[in-house]
Design goal:
Layout (H helix, E strand, L loop, with lengths): L1 H22 L18 E7 L4 E8 L6 E6 L12 H7 L2 E6 L19 H14 L5 E6 L1 H12 L6 E5 L5 H20 L3 H9 L8 H5 L6 E6 L7 H10 L4 E6 L7 H4 L1 H15 L10
Parallel strand pairs: 3-4, 3-5, 5-6, 6-7, 7-8
Antiparallel strand pairs: 1-2, 2-4
Helix pairs in contact: 1-6, 3-4
Length: 293
């Protein structure tokens, strides 16, 4: 009996340790930049008033942009994840911003909010580009956690952006955490790590069972493009279906056959860029007399 309790105690301690590492993830190094890919690149820093944290990023300027695209990366990633978008966006007439969420890359902060708390960072990024180019339409492109942050930001402040592009967004945060283990190690790991989500609630400082992207999207009337792999093992395809159904404004759902989580841009880049740029060009409003900064 003692051995049984000892093993149970060790298992609970292990789950709590994994929950801590999940909430306070290791920072991944920057591995790619817009400048490396041949575009102009400026180092930028701006504050998130809601958290008091300083956020670091790259700004890819355009002399007279027809729009600005803000790119939000996924969990345990950084601004480098979406840097490959920069050349295509610039060529098509868009300036773009890539920044690190708190606890990622070079930005301040230690604890991840898994998309929920990151909404304030997205709102801060929107405010920054609105000051830089008043009157120029703004689009948000997110990958996974970045998609959730974009959805929560626009639901909180509809003036944040004019267009949304959500790549591999989760719906229920609790399902996404569960799916993370499936994504990393399959069903066996998913079953073994089930308790992490409960032990992680006080560590994360939020309740994943109460956080839903589709609920936020029910408040969004902006044109929204949903991109999703039909083999996504983290944010299952039903998450995309639920998010898409909740949207009230102009919308489009694009499936990438045989693709897993956030894989489409790497495996089907031609179609990915065609869908993204096509949607931007169709739905971004025309510029209204703005001042270039």
């Amino acid at each position: 009996m003692f051995i049984l309790f000892l093993l149970l105690g060790l298992y609970v301690a292990l789950m709590a340790g994994i929950a801590y590492l999940f909430a306070f993830p290791m920072r991944t190094p920057l591995f790619l930049s817009p400048g490396f890919l041949g575009t102009p690149q400026e180092m930028v820093e701006f504050d998130d008033p809601a958290t008091g944290l300083k956020l670091k990023g790259w700004w890819v300027p355009h002399g007279a942009p027809k729009g600005i695209v803000i790119c939000g990366h996924g969990y345990m990633m950084n601004r480098a994840e979406l840097a490959p978008l920069a050349p295509k966006l610039l060529e098509d007439g868009y300036a773009s911003l890539y920044f690190d969420f708190p606890a990622c890359g070079a930005s301040q902060g230690r604890r991840s909010g898994l998309g929920w708390r990151e909404r304030s960072s997205m709102l801060a990024a929107c405010a920054w580009v609105r000051v830089k180019h008043p009157g120029v339409p703004v689009a948000l492109i997110g990958s996974s956690m970045g998609s959730a942050a974009a959805a929560f930001a626009v639901a909180e402040n509809s003036d944040c952006a004019d267009v949304l592009i959500l790549d591999s967004a989760y719906d229920h945060l609790s399902s996404a955490i569960d799916g993370w283990w499936n994504f990393l190690g399959g069903k066996t790991l998913q079953v073994l790590l089930k308790p992490v989500i409960l032990l992680g609630i006080p560590i994360l400082g939020l309740n994943p069972f109460k956080i839903r992207v589709s609920e936020a999207l029910g408040k969004v009337e902006k044109p929204t493009l949903v991109l999703h792999g039909d083999r996504d093992s983290l944010a299952l395809p039903r998450a995309a279906e639920g998010n898409f159904a909740a949207l009230k404004g102009p919308k489009k759902l694009v499936w990438f056959a045989g693709r897993n989580h956030s894989e489409a841009r790497w495996e089907d880049p031609e179609r990915y860029f065609s869908e993204v740029l096509g949607f931007l060009n169709e739905h971004m409003p025309s510029k209204i007399g703005h001042n270039q900064h």
